[in-house]
Amino acid sequence: MKLKTAILVFANSSKQEVLNKPIFGGDRLFSALNKATLKVVKSTGIPFFVYTEKDQIGNSFGERFVNALQATYDQGFENVITIGNDTPHLRKQHLIESVKQLENKNFVLGPSADGGFYLMGLHKSQFNRNTFLKLPWQSKNLAKSVSLLIKTSKIEVAQLETLFDIDTLEDLHVIAKLSNNISMLLRKIIQSILSIRVDISKHRGIIKNTYQQNSFYNKGSPLLIENIEC
């Protein structure tokens, strides 16, 4: 008998994303990423829930994320696969493989190149609210910390391929070099943003102040304040 699995898309609206990740021209980018992510999720036929800033409950990122996980389990699901909206190379096969691993009672982790993760899949028996709240959210040690936590429980961690997510302009430069595997629309939007020239010295203070006042809402991404570009 297959276990009941749901996908949790923990991602903000494009309007909120552009405030947390002030990439010049980012509104169009994040809107396209949201649509692309949902398209991939819907293609699996797996039940899913989307938690934007309007649905998230809690003061810290960790609280909001953990509460969303708990709420999904409370819907009666045994497994939850959680993803964000900022990984252009996320594909249907990543989600399908996660389901297979969960059916074998494994914990699933899709690490991001920055040390966070773009996907996490776990059975409700592997989820402990208080323990998860103590994880170093939005740090470069997050994926490693999660793996160590699960392995101490003698549960096998099935690790997917490492992918790049988008938090800064520098990330877009990396994604642009790997654009053959993303949609033509996303490719054009990224190229358009990278072609824009802005007076960095004029805007650096404003953008840096924005980063200091807001946290990234991407579950796996470290919070970066220094060397911010627009």
Give start-end ranges of low-pLDDT stretches: 198-202, 211-217, 224-230
Order of helices and strands: EHHEHEHEEHHEHHH
Indicate the proportion of strand residues.
Answer: 5-15%
Structural class: alpha/beta
**Largest sheet strand order:** 2-1-3-5-4-6
Q: How many structurally independent domains?
A: 1
Mean pLDDT: 87
The second-level CATH architecture is Alpha-Beta Complex
> Any idea what the CATH superfamily is called?
Spore Coat Polysaccharide Biosynthesis Protein SpsA, Chain A
Instruction: Give a short account of the largest sheet.
Output: 6 strands, mixed
Task: Describe this structure as you would to a colleague.
By secondary structure, this protein is an alpha/beta fold. It has helices at residues 14-20, 26-44, 61-73, 92-103, 129-133, 142-151, 169-177, 184-195, 200-213; strands at residues 5-10, 48-51, 79-83, 107-111, 117-123, 157-159. It has a single domain, classed as Spore Coat Polysaccharide Biosynthesis Protein SpsA, Chain A (Alpha-Beta Complex). The chain contains 9 helices and 6 strands, in the order βααβαβαββααβααα. A 6-stranded mixed β-sheet has the order 2-1-3-5-4-6, with helices on both faces. A hairpin with a 5-residue loop joins β4 and β5 (117-123). It is globular. 36% of the residues are buried. The model is unreliable at 198-202, 211-217 and 224-230 (pLDDT under 50).
